[in-house]
């Protein structure tokens, strides 16, 4: 079969067939009397083998090795192809994500596009200082799409950069809350905790609703962060978790401050005082717990709290007694 007919039947151009011949991949078995290339059925079968291997992503050199080396084992080559394909997919996915984010920012010109690209590259930098500058720049100018900010926030380890990113997110509006809510469901504890910290800095009702959901979750660190944020927002449901934090000695000073904020509401002050006194009774054997709970009574008004301080001023633990006595004097001076 002559080269023109081979090209027509195989779909491989005559030019490519000549290239295969020059590389030694497919050599026509013979020549006609006029010197034209003549391919046998075996040659044509090899052409199809070459094309099949090329479709898997093999280079022409790898195709030649696969077809001509008797000791060649395909398993290692296939493993390499799988690895290379995954790497290529990852690169293409990253490019797609970047393009989508640029599109979401609705740039008005190439200057905007270049600025967004520069900020995205800075957020992925190994330099914490560069990431922080990018976050602060986005907070001031609102130039980054919220998806990029959320992704960067949920994976950021440096506390200074994380703070700048949370600030940028809080200024970006409500768009990031749905993505942060997904972060609360992450199987990775650190991602859940970064998500709740970011939600806590968004001052709106939808964020408060997400924090209330986090308050009932299984991650104790997430619950505590949500309780502190809800306490500052005046949400009474946070009170039990805040008292637990004081008993456990986990951010107990911040928890006591949040209780003091909540107790400013007359309808809550007595309830909080009663709950603290109840926990004092439950933890009476542990002096360190009594000390923390006594300190927490400082900003809780009401007769219940005053009576409890009077009893604590006679406590066997000197630190508890001195703290309670001091707090009683402050109340009497008011």
UniProtKB/TrEMBL annotation:
The keyword Signal belongs to this UniProt entry's keyword annotation: no
Keywords: DNA-binding
Pfam families reported in the protein's UniProt record: HEAT_2, MerR_1
Listed PROSITE patterns: HTH_MERR_1, HTH_MERR_2
InterPro entries cross-referenced by the UniProt entry: ARM-like (IPR011989), ARM-type_fold (IPR016024), DNA-bd_dom_put_sf (IPR009061), MerR-type_HTH_dom (IPR000551), MerR_fam (IPR047057), PBS_lyase_HEAT (IPR004155)
GO molecular function: DNA binding; DNA-binding transcription factor activity
Top-level lineage group: Bacteria
Domain HTH merR-type: 1-69
Gene3D superfamilies (alphabetical): 1.10.1660.10, Leucine-rich Repeat Variant
SUPFAM superfamilies membership: ARM repeat, Putative DNA-binding domain
The protein's name: DNA-binding transcriptional MerR regulator
Lineage: Bacteria, Bacillati, Actinomycetota, Actinomycetes, Streptosporangiales
């Amino acid at each position: 079969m002559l080269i023109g007919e081979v090209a027509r039947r195989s779909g491989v151009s005559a030019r490519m067939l000549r290239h295969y011949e020059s590389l030694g991949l497919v050599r026509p078995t013979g020549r006609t009397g006029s010197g034209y290339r003549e391919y046998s059925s075996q040659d044509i079968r090899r052409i199809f083998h070459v094309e099949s291997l090329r479709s898997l992503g093999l280079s022409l050199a790898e195709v030649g090795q696969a077809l001509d080396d008797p000791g060649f084992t395909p398993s290692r080559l296939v493993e390499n192809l799988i690895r290379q394909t995954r790497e290529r997919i990852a690169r293409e996915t990253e490019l797609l994500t970047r393009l989508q984010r640029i599109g979401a920012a609705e740039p008005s010109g190439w200057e905007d596009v270049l600025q967004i690209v520069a900020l995205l590259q800075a957020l992925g930098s190994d330099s914490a200082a560069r990431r922080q500058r990018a976050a602060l720049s986005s907070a001031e100018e609102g130039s980054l799409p919220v998806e990029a900010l959320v992704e960067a926030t949920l994976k950021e380890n440096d506390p200074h950069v994380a703070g700048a990113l949370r600030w940028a997110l809080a200024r970006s509006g409500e768009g990031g809350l749905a993505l942060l809510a997904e972060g609360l469901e992450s199987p990775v504890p650190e991602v859940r905790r970064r998500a709740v910290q970011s939600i806590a800095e968004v001052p709106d009702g939808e964020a408060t609703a997400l924090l209330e959901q986090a308050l009932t979750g299984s991650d104790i660190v997430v619950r505590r962060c949500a309780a502190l944020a809800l306490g500052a927002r005046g949400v009474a449901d946070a009170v039990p978790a805040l008292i637990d934090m004081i008993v456990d000695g986990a951010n107990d000073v911040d928890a006591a401050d949040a209780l003091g904020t909540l107790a400013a509401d007359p309808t809550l002050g007595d309830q909080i005082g009663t709950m603290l006194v109840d926990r004092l009774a439950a933890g009476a054997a542990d002096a360190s717990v009594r000390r923390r709970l006594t300190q927490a009574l400082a900003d809780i008004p009401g007769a219940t709290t005053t009576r409890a301080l009077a009893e604590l001023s006679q406590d066997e633990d000197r630190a508890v007694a001195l703290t309670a006595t001091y707090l009683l004097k402050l109340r009497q001076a008011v």
